[in-house]
Amino acid sequence: MLAASAGFGVAEPRPDVAGIDFHIVGLSEVDDDFPLAKVQVKSWSTPHGDDLSWHYDRLNEKQFNAIAGSRLVPAFLFVIVVPPDSRDYARINDQRLQLCHAGYWVSLAHRPKFPNPSANRTVTVHVPRKNLLTIESLTALCEGTVNGAGPLVRTS
Fold it and tell me: Counting beta carbons within 10 angstroms of the beta carbon of residue 75, is it exposed (0 to 12), middle (13 to 18) or buried (19 or more)?
């Protein structure tokens, strides 16, 4: 829903051989190319962390490697913090569909991959709380991939 609101399309790669849940694709050209980002999405109903970041501890080394390091198309981890009870994920009335709670993003481009990664060992990833997924941040992430520019992060 967020991608559609930002004017992007979403494609689910099949078969899933790369550990990527979605490709977010621009529907119009920016600087002679179509914006593109790869994302791995994790929902999390028991969040913990500190004032600066969430400490997401449910990513295994293989999942981590799928989005870590330098890439031709930048890849991101999206952590969606959800209520513990799935019946509270959304509030709906005749005027609105509201999703509860929020999503956050992090790039692992600066992190090295694990040699001989295991699906049995987990990695804690610090996801900055300031990296709230919004129409503006999603647009910046995707449009920053044009011409290999890498992700744009707005600091304002």
Answer: buried
Cα(70)–Cα(127) distance, integer angstroms? 18
Distance spanning both ends of the chain, measured CA to CA: 24
> Is pTM, for the whole model, over 0.70?
yes
pLDDT tens-digit profile of 34-86?
A: 888 999 999 999 999 999 999 999 999 999 999 999 888 889 999 999 999 99
Report how far residue 123's alpha carbon sits from residue 44's, in angstroms, rounded to the nearest whole number. 15
| Both tokens assigned to 120 | 């049995």
> CATH fold of 2-148, please?
Trna Endonuclease; Chain: A, domain 1 (3.40.1350)
Residue 47 backbone zone (phi > 0: left; psi -120 to 50: alpha; other: beta): beta
Query: Using H for helix, E for strand and C for coil, what is the string for 10-39?
Result: EECCCCCCCCCCEEEEECCCECCECCEEEE
How do the domains of the chain map onto residue ranges? 2-148
